[in-house]
Amino acid sequence: MPDVPVGDRAFAHGIGGSADLPISPSLAIAGAVAALVISFTVLAIAWRTPRYDEATTGRPAPAWLDGLVASTGWRFALRALGFVVFAYTVMVAVLGEDLRTNPFFGIVFVWWWVGLVPLSLLFGPVWKMISPVRTINLAFAKLSGSDPEVGVFTYPQRLGHWPAAIGLFAFVWLELVYPFMTELGPVRLWCAVYVAAMLIGGALFGNTFYEHADPFEVYSTLVGKLSVWGTREGRLLVRSPLANLDSVVVRPGLVAVLAVLFGSTAFDSFRDSSEWVSFIQSTTVSSYLLNNLALLSFCIGVGLVFALGCMLTGVGPETSRRSLPDRYAHSIVPIVVGYVVAHYLTYLVEFGQRTLILASDPFGDGSNILGTGDWTINYWLSYHPTLLANTKVIAVVVGHVLGVIAAHDRAVRLLPARHQLTGQLPLLFAMVAFTAGGLYLLFAA
């Protein structure tokens, strides 16, 4: 793949679509569905008691590592790193030129949005550790002599993660639908509103607000549940990611957050499909309106399919059907991660490199402040389409299989013995639909 101008490639999400996948779509979908059904069958026969309990599993991390992570110096270093990147981003947003070569776009849409996934998978809830809004809130609290954990009011528990879901939808709308998202002004304004809202929320409700309502912290924390790092009573643990998933706190709006994450990624594939492009070109209805409706429909559709699959499962005497979607929502996290990896892999690798190159010359004056200005993009991944195809399909399949395992482990804890097999079938059908639909859209992009 030749090195083409940044303006032609910068926002081509899902670089490496169907043309890069030398695998029969029908074979990939059939294989994935078969893997899902076989996994469920094996689990139903051999797995009759819960195995992943976050309260009892895991072993202590080495003492030196636990001490390092808990130290004030380590936390300060991470916050300093996050704030330096934040300050640089503000600089290029305010002083940089309104061109696509401004690294601000890559920092926001690639490093921040997509890069949070691999960082959180490797290190846990990264955004919570480096969040500049938490750092600013901490600084204000120190200056005023108050406690950053405590705000003026108590955060309403009924709100749960709903503000985070709304914030995530606002971001994916900006990224995928808003027609001027490649202009500096609108993206800069969105980021400014985000920072202002987070600082006001932190002042009113303390750090509890970030845990519940910061869209990027909630996103990073959920993905971080698939890392090997956990905590219990202040100690760092090493444990199975599936045990970490069991520690996802059930809150209102959790399903909405995951529906936005999964639905928006599916829409990103769908909007590049030949069928949708042909429809947009053949109709007199505004493409902007249609894309808005499609994005909203994908997010709502994912949430409804999952909620219906959960509510149709069997219930125990002390479990209400309305509570089931949020209680099973943790099982969607690996599905979201698998599809994000499949859809954005080449985008992150290749345009992530481009952003690092552009970051050395933020004002276009020939400077090389990071020493990366003379680097070239390595397109090795795109030059190996078979490997890329296999990686994408494996990411989707593994994500769905892990989702089935997590859902089954929760089901054998919630369902009465007589319903532990048949009671799970509606949720299995929902996950089969997600698998087939996700792979179809991956190939259609």
From TrEMBL:
The chain crosses the membrane at residues 27-47, 76-96, 102-124, 162-181, 187-210, 248-267, 293-316, 328-349, 387-405, 425-443. Coiled coil: none annotated. This is Fenitrothion hydrolase. Keywords: Membrane, Transmembrane, Transmembrane helix. It comes from Nocardioides szechwanensis.
